[in-house]
Amino acid sequence: MSRDYANRKPGAKARQSKKKPTQGTSLSFVPLALVLVLLAGFGYFLWSINGSAGDTPAAPKASAAQEKITEKAKPKKDPNALPPKPTEEWTYLKELETKSVEVDIPAEAMVSAGPYQMQCGSFRQESQANQMKAMIAFQGINAQVRQSSGSNGVWYRVILGPYDNKRAAERNKHTLQNAKINGCQIWLWQ
After folding, report:
1. Which has the closest alpha carbon to 71: 63, 79, 60?
2. Exposure of 147 in the CB half-sphere (CA atoms within 13 A)
3. Would you call the peptide bond into 162 cis, given omega within 30 degrees of 0 as the criterion?
4. CA distances for 183 relative to 50, 53, 118, 177, angstroms
5. What is the mean pLDDT of each successive set of 10 residues along the chain, which is 190 residues long?
6. Backbone phi and psi for residue 189, each to the nearest 5 degrees, phi listed first
7. Which terminus of the chain, N or C, has less C-beta within 10 A?
């Protein structure tokens, strides 16, 4: 629906929107009167308690001689002074120095299953195996290149070891992993 705003008569909407007067004038007088009564009551309350703070009974005054003695006995304190630093006693440090932990390890767990070896690569070409051996040698670990022949041809394996226990082999494996040489496997010596 379109409207013609250019030819519209100016008073058309003004006639429709005439407001009827409301009878709310008596309603706005009640809250105003209530606020005034409350303010007057609050003012009276403050006026009535104005002088009551000084009406407390005074303590009996001590003699002038006693006041002089207490003034000499008490040193003047700085109102901004901090209290003394508390002393802390930590007992767990002493307990940790003398504490010992005993662990029972079965005898069969201590015995190694045998010597261990670590293989870090297996290559078809001997030059690649020697290259891997050199990378391992830069880490300070001695490696060997072994030739093994089987049904699928000749392989050149890069072997480290023998190690008496698996922990020593794991230590070298972690050293090689830090140097980005991954894929080393630990096996029993064959």
Report:
1. 63
2. 6
3. yes
4. 91, 88, 10, 9
5. 76 56 64 93 92 62 59 70 85 84 79 86 96 96 94 95 92 95 90
6. -65, 135
7. N
Is the Cβ–Cβ distance between 175 and 139 less than 8 Å?
yes
CA distance 127 to 153: 16
pLDDT for the residue numbered 35? 93
Q: Which residues pair with 150 in a beta bridge?
A: 153
Report the residue count for the chain. 190
pTM of the model: 0.43
